Amino acid sequence: MASEASAMMATAAEGIGTFLVKMKIRRQVLLDAEVVESLGETARYLEARETGSPEDATHLVLKSFGDWWCGPNSTKRLAVGSLEVLYDHIAKMYKLGVPLTLGERLTDQFSFFQDIEIRGSKDDKIDYQDIVGADSTFLLFLGRIMADLFPKQQLQVIVLDASGLNKQLGVEQTAVRLVWQVVSGKSTQSIVVDSQKANHIVDHMISKATESRDKNIGELLQRAQAFSPFNTWKSIFVSDVSYGNGTHRDRQRPIIRMTLNDGVDDCPMSGPQQRPLKPVFIHKFSKKDSMLDWKVEQQWPSDKGANPELGLEDYAKLVKMTSIRQASGTPLTDWVAPSCKGNEPTKKIKTRTTAGSLDYGRPPCRLVPTFVKRTVAFPGDMEEFRSKIVRELGQSGNTDVDYEKGTVKWEGKDCQLVFQHASHMVHITGVESLCRQYLSVFQGHQGQSPGSTDALGFCSTPAGTGMGRCFACAATSSRLRPISLAGGKGTCHG
Q1: Is 100 within 8 Å of 67 (Cβ atoms)?
Q2: Domain extent listing, the chain
Q3: What is the pLDDT of residues 64-75, one digit of tens each?
């Protein structure tokens, strides 16, 4: 018995020694001997939850990176049932200075989040506080849009930051994530959406930012484009990679980096980015005294200039609050869908040379729109479809009814809808943003209220380092309004 115990201890020591070697090679980190036992606990926990089935995986190692705890036969896929312990290990490794590299597999319904990225130069970038600080005009701009979409809810946003050097691009990058919540009394709830609704919200924000006449919003875009011409509102609001299009099979769903985890670069530079996603602010949106506009109130940290260091328990709570996954079948949060103005005429484009004179030698370059195809069922007949087109789209296009072929065709700029009575299917062809908006007309939106969650709230002590029940969130119901793609009723040509 004594020999067996000695052998087991030797094996355990050898395994922990291997972890330390991998930590030094793959992370370039040397840890003290006093944390070796804690390191082994995390490794054993993760290895015990590995699964060989892609369909069963709830969490994955980002980019299949061979992290320090991964063995030679590691699947790098985890099936985690009890999440509380996982959150504790994530917080512990972040405090040790060696954050894990885990991501959540996106579920059909998920907490609404936004990733915002702005490229900088080799040695400079836009400070994240300029876009998500309490005094940021851009954050207030986003809050107003969300307040229009969720008018009966008090809103709160948790801000996470992962800004730093993008080693693949060779430039500094501003990278933040906003996790939106609703507030009611002392309970907290995430805004629950699906891929279609999340893309719809972001498309609406891009449209609003593009059309905005606010000088501060325009100056922010000018600052961003001074660093890189790649910075446009479409690229700043990261959506397609984050939300997918809702048609992925389970094993192909997007993998979303978790809070307090580090990102991983693509090959051949595969390795941690060394800029983990860490919490920096919690803001609440409330009405001004005049009740005509909104204001941003920083809830945590209480001192605007503070950068508090939290304890393990507080960090674990933050990981839970910003978790994206939702249980299958979770009702979506009620909202008021944004109306579409239809197709607006293309604005005139002038090209100028670097010196500012007109360039008569060549025509302006124009981007060719990429068209996609979508289908959706419509149970009605041809007349019902035509009536719906007239009511929803008005005069923004032309309608052609062919009773012999049993089709109704509506054609507008950059989009076409064809209803086939035989199959009761609507075939939509056009640019992706318009397809998503027109799909929502026929799919319909059911008013739903999200399920309740535990009340979790942050409240800084005078030192700006504690947590308490200063505030929390919950959803209240609101009725849906039917979407109108033309802004009202109208007549239809044809």
Answers
A1: yes
A2: 21-103, 110-321, 371-443
A3: 999 989 988 999
